[in-house]
Amino acid sequence: MPDEPNNTIAVAMSGGVDSSTVAAILRSEGHSLVGLTLQLWNQRRLAGHEGMPESVQGRCCSLDDVYDARAVAEQLGIPYYVVNQQERFEADVVKPFVSEYLAGRTPIPCTLCNNHLKFDQLLLTARQIGADRIATGHYARNRFDPERNRWILSRPADHTKDQTYFLFGLTQEQLSRTLFPLGEMQKPAVRQIAQDSGLYVAQKPDSQEICFIPGGDYSTFLKAYLDEQNEPMPDLSGELVTTSGEVIGHHQGIHSFTVGQRKGLGISSPNPLYVLAIHPDSHRVTVGADEDLLSRDLTANRLNWISIASMTEGEEIRITAKIRHRHTPAPATLLGAGDDRVRVVFDEPQRAITPGQATVFYQEDDVVGGGWIL
């Protein structure tokens, strides 16, 4: 059985309605709380630089969000701290993001942040200030399964807000010390509790952008960041080719493409063309018809297991698998491939399986584990 924790809970406060409501719920239940916000990125750092916008308002983890989190903590009468993790965020999230994109892959910085920084640092800071549990506003559920002697991560009651895709890297220790109070709730009910609690963030819009990339303009961010680092933008230009190898155009850099992309190819065609594959060694980008994006299998590595301890080579498990956040989990067979790898074979072909993205495995609502698509 898991250890019995004490009654002090550190609430990860982002300044949004979800984490603010978590604090209000736990406060109303009589828990001793401490509010924590991780300061991850200087939002003014690249503002207005090389095409980056001057305004930095309205993004996840912005200074406005820190202000809102502090105000909610004051309103609830709980201690509040901002923990500066900008150096680690840059080293563990931003630089790997840049490297992956320059290599023609499509990384997910939010998953990297959760897996390698947020939960690890929040638990460490919580213990330093006398709390041994954290609570977050993620839409997910967790429980201890005595039969398997493991903590299980599960999809929330509100599947439209499911965030387990971003949490597949959580360890057993982290799951054992984390509360997800919104796991059984629907989003409208969360806003209603915030309204009833008098929280002025009750109608605050949800953030949709990556905290350090306004507007999702990855290419502009890469150029601005490399320039700030006094690093030249590498020449990633190359040829646009068909599946038969015919050269039909040229591009300015593989970092401007992702698998499944249709717009911005820079060529005209009587039929719609999509990015099918990116070849970092040759800088070639293969394009073709929409049906050419369909594939039945993938290989993943850098695995993390949750409902099971591991998979052996040759072992098979029936699952459903996600290949992106908004992807509906699709029936598949998971095959242990050895050397920290698995192969996923879908029952039906899936569209635009993208190297660099995460794939997460489920059995019903429970997360089996996940990894990174090779």
UniProtKB/TrEMBL annotation:
Domain tRNA-specific 2-thiouridylase MnmA-like central: 233-288
Molecular function terms, GO-annotated: ATP binding; methyltransferase activity; tRNA binding; tRNA-uridine 2-sulfurtransferase activity
Pfam family, one: tRNA_Me_trans_M
Class of enzymatic activity (EC top level): transferase
UniProt keyword annotations, A-Z: ATP-binding, Cytoplasm, Disulfide bond, Methyltransferase, Nucleotide-binding, RNA-binding, Transferase, tRNA processing, tRNA-binding
Positions bound to ATP: 12-19, 38, 137
Domain tRNA-specific 2-thiouridylase MnmA-like C-terminal: 296-373
Any single Gene Ontology cellular-component annotation: cytoplasm
Compartments where found: Cytoplasm
EC number: 2.8.1.13
InterPro entries (UniProt xref): MnmA-like, MnmA-like_C, MnmA-like_central, MnmA-like_central_sf, Rossmann-like_a/b/a_fold
PANTHER family, sorted: MITOCHONDRIAL TRNA-SPECIFIC 2-THIOURIDYLASE 1, TRNA 5-METHYLAMINOMETHYL-2-THIOURIDYLATE -METHYLTRANSFERASE
Family: Belongs to the MnmA/TRMU family.
Function: Catalyzes the 2-thiolation of uridine at the wobble position (U34) of tRNA, leading to the formation of s(2)U34.
Protein name, UniProt field: tRNA-specific 2-thiouridylase MnmA
Naturally occurring in which organism (per UniProt): Edaphobacter modestus
Gene name of the encoded protein: mnmA
